Amino acid sequence: DDVNAFSLPGGIIYVYEGLVKFAESRDELAGVLAHEISHAAFRHVATLERERSRLDILNIPLIIAAVLSRDPNAARAMAGANLATQGLMSGWSVQAETAADFGALQYMRQSQFNPVAVLTFMERLAFREQLKPQVQWGIYQTHPPSVQRAAFILRWLNEQGIPVRRSEVTTSLSAKNLPVENHFELWFGNVRIHTFRGEGARDRGARALLRLNEFMDSVPQTFQFRPSGPEMLGNGRTLFVIEPQDAGDPEQTVATMSAASSGALRRVIYDLRFRLWAVPPTLSPVEDRSGLR
Fold first, then answer.
1. Reading across the β-sheet that carries 183-188, which strands appear in turn?
2. What is the pLDDT confidence band of residue 285, given thresholds at 50, 70 and 90?
3. pLDDT tens-digit readout, 205-219
4. Count of Cβ atoms closer than 10 Å to residue 123 Cβ
5. Is the pTM of this model over 0.90?
6. Measured distance between the N- and C-terminal CA atoms of the chain, rounded to whole angstroms
């Protein structure tokens, strides 16, 4: 069940079932594989073993001295050397992880997959880690904190001018339209935003899907969303309009549906910002990917 993967010299890669379940798209799984491929291509395991062997050779005189002399100081010196070796190896392993992240981004950019998936996978991993008890591993820490890794990945994406559109590579950070009988439900993650009914419901839902993903990809703040009667506005632009025909029963009115949708949208905006450890820059000017006016 662990969210983990590792590679062996020669390029053999093992992926845990828990990681496959955790990945929300083929792109995210490809990003993990690219990371492990980088470890193998950079010969990280072989280099780590070689460096460890060199340090072990340097420790041999201390081991001999501790055995022959039985001097407590010699034993303490040997223990200190072992800790120093562990610290050096862990430090090298941390650097190797950063190098493999960089290699993964290079592979992803040259492939059919979206490199933003490397970021979203790491961001969700960082969020999950923040909910667990924090342990300071000290010299035994072999990986940089996921938050730092995500910061490195995000910085690289921005430097390369790659738009950070999380909706393209995730399910929990994207909108979707679910057909239910003769109507269409607009969701973001696991929150239902609105239900489109009646004539033109499919087209209205499709337009709302594009606009909502565009808006949420900018990681907005709550003040950037504003309801105006039946109209839901994001950054001053229409996300969708609630119509009387959307009512599921006679007791529903445009006002009550508007209140429910605006509450749901504020909830997902807050949840998105809470999940992301850092807020990326808003697309400026706001890019319209839908082609709709």
1. 175-180, 183-188, 191-196
2. very low
3. 999 999 999 999 999
4. 24
5. no
6. 46
